[in-house]
């Protein structure tokens, strides 16, 4: 049986990436696409690269008949998402790609997002969408909150180390290099080609990036104590990809072992042999995350490097993976497209 | 039944692209990979983006047992290819991605490639691999010669116009913009990032590019008279994609009609509405070719713009499409991956 | 004596480029900078790369006391420029970088810019700013109209050929590849890094680009008859540079001779030996224009390729060159910075 | 009096960058250029962007008559440099851009460069070329050793902090993002446009990069004890620029004050207001280094970010600055070119 899918907010990059994956997914079919500011348009006008597909026209959310929909992906802006989902049928499965349901603590939400949460009941119900760590909950969930793309990358590098107790929890530095599509299709000066090309710069420097809310929540929960990491993202002149260089205090061999053991059965999390490290160009366009561990010359310190595609494994690929679970499908269905290189 | 595939010359970009497509092709399985200078290595070492796949180790060609192979893709350098194919079993189906069997006239081969052809019997047997125009011959062929990537782009724009007699055959200018992967993984100064990034320049200017041999052969055959086009390729700072801007003398409406009619049933050749024109970013990583026609302000002149991915539709995607036909499979099997954007 | 300079519209790319040149110009000093939407800000906030310079704060135009100003560069948007310049003191020397005063015929202006000109008296006074062809007029001018950057490139390639009568005037095709800074610092979707990087596409295809107004005006004036060229610009993923590939019917030797002779004494117009052709990466950041001529394989046809930096020789460099003449300075003063490569 | 300059190894990127600066330097004149593998060629053939300059032809080093030369820049490969300089006249002023004379301790040299130093007497004589910290020694020196480009960036961020005693010397992490021109014009697969564009990856991960030898030497000397930092460089898809993100334990205010005070009189070292941080795009093509300090959310931790152009301030610009001192010229002569943006 083919699941009928709606994508709310299909006119952004994560929406288009969902369509790309579903286009060759054997068990999903796109039944509705919304894009309020572009309602009435064909997807081919908004995203000519999808021109070859037979897709429904973009509508408003209100125009969608959710009776025939099995699952909705919600790729709307932060804050909008919670208002929209609150109005959806209560039995509709939803994978939300916004930040609205990632933080379980309403106070944390308000701290990082600057206003009170408007759908607290939904927030209680939502399951955090880091598939490999919340798999059973996701399978049973009605509402799954996709993680931040940076937050996913950092967690893949660090969760097994915290679980295994092989690193100093007070000395974690995540230096992250992010490609520009993570900022979405928004018209901002620093996202212009003329500004970014041949450039590179930090942003949200000093521990103010919102994905820190996710790190704090998750790492503290694992450790059973408060954990606060340093996290500095940088924008680099590339379209897709996140490379997180994580500095930890711990033995490289133990760090590597913790990752390798934890991910031994994880199809999409690939741990390289100790001493090797990944490149974003080798995961681009795919749902794979590559992880490497290298010992520093200073004894007792190690460097973990994780690479994934922010739009795929970091966002829409993760969303499909979660949807597969929620729909009772084999988890990796439709997600095994190889990276595009060069 | 799954076809067993060998890829000879798997350590180059077209080889890797074949692997990418076959990785999710339901009816093909990679049984052997050769890469002489890298024999003994794992593909994951040569192409880490393919690390998640369970692939045979690279060997020499001599080490391959062709008894169990249904079809070989030959992605070897020009001139090497003819020597290697001459030694393969005579009943092995072969799709050659080199230039060796594209030109039917031995004199034309010698003129454009600078030495006599060393496998004239094979050349006689080879079918020119522009799928949409040689489909029946390809279905019956043992040896198919993949076209040049630039040659494919130009022909998609022009063949229907010549067939339909709607343009002046003596006034055709093809100005082509090519991304750098078309030059392969070769270590040349002008292919360095520091040289090409923020650059753009013509190459083989003046009608000396070898793909002109294909244009001359094909266009003259269609027209029933000698046709000589102007063709100037340019290298642009991008990895994938060819954009051909073709200047013709003829009515835009007739030009558009000729393309639209000829390609009405062609899944991978997408003709845009008259007045629209394509971008390479909308076909990247896919087997689709987008074509557009715009009338010039000068009456009686039209501009045809064609965009495709040189490694996909221009080379390895085309090769898979041809192999599907040769193996009795549905032509588009495995080739419907959507473009990667952004 | 150091000339006091005002730059109106200093918060755009051409404004910043003027500042870059004047920063090391021995005979110019920046006395006032306007940027209406950013009035009150320091240039270092708008353009941090100019942070090391001691510059006046951005003001509104109204706040500038033009009494002490020798020359104003007007880098304002089209249409705004004519309104502003009409209000400036009548004896102030002005170099306008907008399109407002490029077309001598009011009807042509209205045709290409879509509304009547609002300062016809000024338009009559304005001198077209293609330095090497209007040098004496510019020296005596009060108001000089900077040319379009594409228009400059095409004219450098073609004017000497039309003057010398060595090409067919009815068969001229200009295929132009332009970097993105020519579009200014405007927030448009197609200028985003995620959209343009790895992309390339035509724009204003079909003979509708406004710089055609300049080609028509200038080429017709030289030829003494109406000349209409084909002109198709393309956007490529680079920040600076224009590469114009011009297809002409004429003997390459005669074409090359016409360029070489005409530019023999022109410091900034460099004609390469016949058979060589230029790259934009070799003129980036400089006031130099490189030109090459190659014979096509079809007898009687030639390809002229011209490369320049759209922000420098195509705009702000040209403006400085003209200002030098207007101020009685040596023409190339401050303009001999070498290109930045890589 | 104009100083006569020789550039040995002028066919690489640092050689070309020296020529770019000297082209508009009022007190230097290029008298000789060597490039052994390209001896006999014009610079315009090797670097067409320098075509407008009247330069001597490339020769072998042996062909140069050093009698008339005031100062030689030696831009030769590591190890070659020491052999060549040993053969130069003993009274010739030399600025070496290689790594050969950076490490004062022969054992350190052997450790990091893998073989014994072959010119120990010269090494004793050499002055380390970090201008702002060795100014007086450089003024008096005959032989100055240019610093590593990464080493310069890290030192600009850290030296004043170590001097001022405001950070924990055992907890320093330098995460560095480097553009590709730092690798020179060498033909390596990972420097190809098709490999690097849309990529980003670490290199020399784990504390094995040779510039650590410089950090160890300099920081230990300042601190009066052994200091070992963590240093992980990354290659990003850009041509020019180094962005170093330095994680330190110390109060941000004290860290900022230490930098601001130390560099208050340094023209080329620009400290941003506390809380701001730089981008490589704002120093490209210039001799300026921008530095910023931001407090982390974790009390007692700060992030210092430094940006410079590896070919300019990181190498050839630094070399010119040192040469100015050695020749008795004003230190910043010829180096005040503004950055190229966009």
UniProtKB/TrEMBL annotation, chains A, B, C, D:
Primary enzyme class: oxidoreductase
A single BP term in Gene Ontology: L-arginine biosynthetic process
GO CC terms: cytoplasm
GO molecular function, one term: NAD binding
Highest taxon of the lineage: Bacteria
E.C. code: 1.2.1.38
Biological pathway: Amino-acid biosynthesis; L-arginine biosynthesis; N(2)-acetyl-L-ornithine from L-glutamate: step 3/4
Listed HAMAP family: ArgC_type1 (MF_00150)
Function of the molecule: Catalyzes the NADPH-dependent reduction of N-acetyl-5-glutamyl phosphate to yield N-acetyl-L-glutamate 5-semialdehyde.
UniProt name for this protein: N-acetyl-gamma-glutamyl-phosphate reductase
Name of the gene encoding the protein in the UniProt record: argC
